[in-house]
Structure formats: structure tokens, C-alpha cells
TrEMBL record:
Pfam families: Acetyltransf_1. The lineage of its organism: Bacteria, Pseudomonadati, Pseudomonadota, Alphaproteobacteria, Hyphomicrobiales. Gene3D superfamilies: 3.40.630.30. Residues 1-142 form the N-acetyltransferase domain. One of its GO terms (molecular function) is acyltransferase activity, transferring groups other than amino-acyl groups. Signal peptide: none annotated. This is GCN5-related N-acetyltransferase. InterPro entries: Acyl_CoA_acyltransferase, GNAT_dom.
Amino acid sequence: MSQAPRIVVRDGASELDRAAILRALITHNEKAGGPSGFQQVCLVVEDPDTGETTGGLWGRIIYDWLFVEFLAVPETARRSGLGTELLGRAEQIAKERGCAGVWLDTYQFQAPDFYRKHGYQEFGRIADHPRGSQRLFFMKTF
């Protein structure tokens, strides 16, 4: 590289941009911390009539921990035990794959008490994010 790198702001960046940034991060992380053992975890909730995905759990295993990025239960199925089943199945997958635990984040207006009820411990929070609420971080070790 003959010139110094430059920073460019790209509104509406492409998946190629994302992939290049991620590739640079993974290269560094694996040199410093060894192979991450990345594995995707995806559980979908399907509408029995249409087969449409209406919710589910999306996560990834990296360095022996499952990070739950999304957990969504269709509004019509809330308080039916479906969220408990999704979380329990994800935890079982994590255990089977040798994980030390699970971590995730949620907003105060979402489901912090749901995670506490399932044995998750709060390990951090961001006050006033979004404004007037909080973002909470939870973990559960096996």
C-alpha cells in the first residue's frame, strides 16, 4: 500500500463491505485467540397452515459461548411456553456442542424478567438506551 488507508462513509453499504470487514476481524481474532469454532444456531417457528416463518431464535457459537442475537415469539403465541421452548432447545444445542454458556442482550421493554426466570444473570446495562429505557446484558453458565 503506497498511500495511507482512507476512511469512506458509505450509506447503504453492501454485503461485500460487511464481509470484508468481518474477514479482517476474523483474521485478527483467530491469530490472537485461536479458531473461534463459529457455528450458526437457528430455530424457526413456522405457521402450520402457511409454512411461513413467524418467529424463532437466531444465534451463533463463538469461542465456546452461544450468543443469542434474536429471539422472537409471534404475538399470538406469547405466554404459551414457546419462548421457553426456544430458549431451552438453544441451551441444549449449546451444551451438546460443548459451550460454557449462553449470553444475550435485551431491552427493558422486552423480556428481562423472562431471562431472569430462566436462570440468566445480568452482567451489564446501558442506561437510557433507547432514551427512557435500558439495554440489559445477561448470561447463563452451564
